[in-house]
Amino acid sequence: MRRVVVTGLGLVTPLGSDVETTWANILAGKSGAGPITRFDASDQKCRIACEVKPADHEYGFDASKRVDHKIQRQVDPFIVFGIDAAGQAIEDAGLVDMDDATRLMAGCSIGSGIGGLPGIESESLVLHEKGPGRVSPHFVHGRLINLISGQVSIKYGLMGPNHAVVTACSTGAHSIGDAARMIKDGDANIMLAGGAEATICPIGIAGFAQARALSTNFNDEPAKASRPYDQARDGFVMGEGAGVVVLEEYEHAKARGAKIYCEVIGYGLSGDAYHVTAPHPEGSGAYRSMAMALKKAGLEPRDIDYINAHGTSTPLGDELELGAVRRLFGDAIDDVSMSSTKSAIGHLLGGAGAVESIFCILAMRDQIVPPTLNLDNPSEGCAGVDLVPHTAKKRDVRAVLNNSFGFGGTNASLVMRQID
Amino acid sequence: MSDTADRVKKIVVEHLGVEADKVTEEASFIDDLGADSLDIVELVMAFEEEFGVEIPDDAAEKISTVSDAIKYIEENKG
Predict the structure, then answer these.
(1) In CATH, what number is assigned to the domain containing residue B8?
(2) Which residues of B touch A127 (CB under 8 A)?
(3) Ramachandran angles phi, psi of A98, nearest 5°
């Protein structure tokens, strides 16, 4: 059987434009939240977000590092973030110079939940105000969700599968799971897999706020707004950025002496078949997704040391997920640590599952689990579970579970384990 | 160098992300400056915007160098 390992990581987040800076800030308990600066949000119900910081910031993002000036102008920011994160992952994996035979068996599965919303919004205004003759010739391919994979494939000459998942907030996890299967099936030896999002624009914030999904009670205290499991939570804080991993067939990685982070051993996916935005009231979809991932991994709940929760800080979702974990884990819940890093970087939507998988991988590398910030007064249903409040915690981390759930009732779970 | 030439070159530098000294009047957008056909559509739109001229598709197709653009704009601007 072909096994799939992780050999490269790339991150662009509100807490850093690379893996190590982001991780250090996450472990230090920093928050990436602040007032929205991208546009005048004074008339919005939600006026805060976790923005990727500008290049001159202490841990800001310099798009010019890996993305051509011309492409930066033509495409939406989610594609720029995705190209950069993919570049980091390729560099980390030592795969910048691949020969033709290697590139024929190397592909991409980098998705997004929404795609180029800021560009759709602004170009719609151009159409309305100046007419069709002023719409950019790069409008369509600068906004399409599969154009991270497209751009990365062209840039690095990847001739294997060119794929992109669109499953709302489960995108990043599904992307990694699907890509791992492609490697298992022999479609590729190397896959760049992950997700990206950048929808901090007037219609993006207004749309999610109107769906009652965003936090609106903490506009004056942005760092306190994302507070999964806390009694005062009132919605998620929008984040942006990208996470991309290099997945590689185990023997292929070993043969070239690659640094191996961990093995992807389980992938579960399910549908709630219930409601477009609300999670199933018994968390049954979440339960089945996690159960399937564990079964595929051949692990028991007690083998899992850390869960990176979906935990978005919405009133309904957090406790339903926790309830599903409780039912699945039984007594094993006493020994697991479960946290939501969305408390620090907000909800990266289509990027979340990939970014959070990377945090899981780093937790295994460094034997430390990241905290859930702002967990001052846990909700009643959270009693007896280690949600890693406020500060990171050193502990054994041999196997991890990552959950992502999305609008449309789509669920994905990944199980990864240290390599033996 | 004319004011039109300066402004045309500035737009080319900004849109194509090329060094200013490469944007000579003889430079071909595609062969010398790395543009593709869609980049030229975008450049033509930027020229129309900047100079308030209308550049119809059949005229745009004949613009392949920097000097073609400068010449067309000089002859047609209001």
Answers:
(1) 1.10.1200.10
(2) none
(3) -100, 145
